[in-house]
Write a structure and sequence with these properties.
alpha/beta, eight-stranded parallel beta sheet, four-stranded antiparallel beta sheet, 30% helix, binds flavin mononucleotide
């Protein structure tokens, strides 16, 4: 039986719904020897800003029960180096590259997207889980006005799909998804990490130099599934589900909850070939269950 694994994310057609989650797959190239990058629906690269950023001082990552916590501090090579040194090396793969972008003010986001428009980047994913320096560190994720402006302006300068990556940490995620749809976002992805704290009792110090970190992995899967499902009831644009996806079953659950595609994050640290395995697993599931198209699974949760 020939099954159809393609999905359409705001005009971007992917050969299957499996993407990498930003920050867990480097710039793609680091994983070349572990997974055939041609197998992936899309490669979402580490968050990119206008200028290079060194990130936080160590310790930046710690294991937690059923997950990890990180405070990398958005380390990145900057948009110019990404375009001149990283992107050309991914050209040999027939897999779209989506640039996850961030800034410390709205202007920074817009300029980064504008610069990427003249590159082979297939889409941008806007990470709004960042503090706005011009508003005293207020998270963009809880600032509907800033997010509206950002999307409208980025749509003017970036001509391919614009995905907004939502934060689980602030306010009402369904309302923010609605703001994204109303202002022209082509898709939303969710969730980013949940704020956490890990303590060393002996030293009574945090295990992460930044004190707080972002929790990811299996621990957050039920939270992510609930948010994906709630958002799917609110908006019509495609949803990309993220959070604790460790295997094919997890990925399929996100589709049932209402996602059109998924991103794999923390699982890459356990098995760097997991994205290819899940892509194959979804195809096998369709064949075994005689389901013509992966889109037939999206939003089929019954209750
Ligand atoms: C080490 C690390 C770095 C991350 N860096 C970024 C980033 O630069 N931009 C972003 O939007 N999300 C970043 N994330 C969040 C992931 O893309 C993802 O949303 C989150 O980890 C939840 O998915 P998971 O449970 O499958 O890991 C990072 C996560 C980890 C673990």
């Amino acid at each position: 039986m020939k099954v159809n694994t393609t999905v359409n994310i705001g005009g971007l057609v992917l050969k299957n719904p499996v993407m990498t989650a930003s920050g867990t797959f480097g710039y793609g190239l680091e994983f070349e020897e572990y997974v055939n990058l041609n197998k992936l629906g899309a490669i979402v690269v580490k968050g990119i800003a206008l200028n290079p950023v060194k990130g936080n001082k160590p310790q930046r990552l710690v294991e937690t029960p059923a997950g990890i916590m990180n405070a990398i501090g958005l380390q990145n090579v900057g948009v110019e180096t990404f375009i001149s040194e990283k992107l050309p090396l991914l050209k040999k793969y027939a897999t779209p590259v989506i640039a996850n972008i961030y800034g410390t003010d709205v202007d920074g986001y817009i300029k980064t997207a504008q610069r990427l428009n003249d590159s082979a980047t297939a889409g941008v994913e806007i990470n709004i889980s960042c503090p706005n320096v011009k508003k005293g560190g207020l998270q963009f994720a809880s600032d509907k006005e800033a997010v509206s402006t950002m999307i409208k302006e980025i749509k003017k300068v970036f001509t391919r799909p614009v995905i907004v990556k939502l934060s689980p940490n602030t306010g009402n995620i369904e309302e923010m998804a609605q703001v994204c749809e109303d202002n022209g976002a082509d898709a939303v992805s969710l969730i980013n990490t949940l704020v956490g704290l890990s303590i060393n009792l002996k030293t009574r110090r945090p295990n992460i130099a930044n004190v707080f970190g972002g929790l990811s992995g299996p621990a957050i899967k039920p939270v992510a599934l609930a948010m994906v499902h709630k958002v799917s009831k609110k908006v019509k644009i495609p949803i990309i589900g993220i959070g604790g996806i460790m295997n094919t079953t997890d990925a399929l659950e996100f589709l049932v909850a209402g996602a059109s595609a998924v991103q794999i994050g923390t699982a890459n640290f356990i098995d760097p070939s997991i994205t290819g395995i899940i892509a194959d697993g979804i195809k096998n599931y369709l064949e075994d269950n005689k389901i013509d198209s992966v889109t037939d699974i999206t939003g089929t949760l019954e209750y």
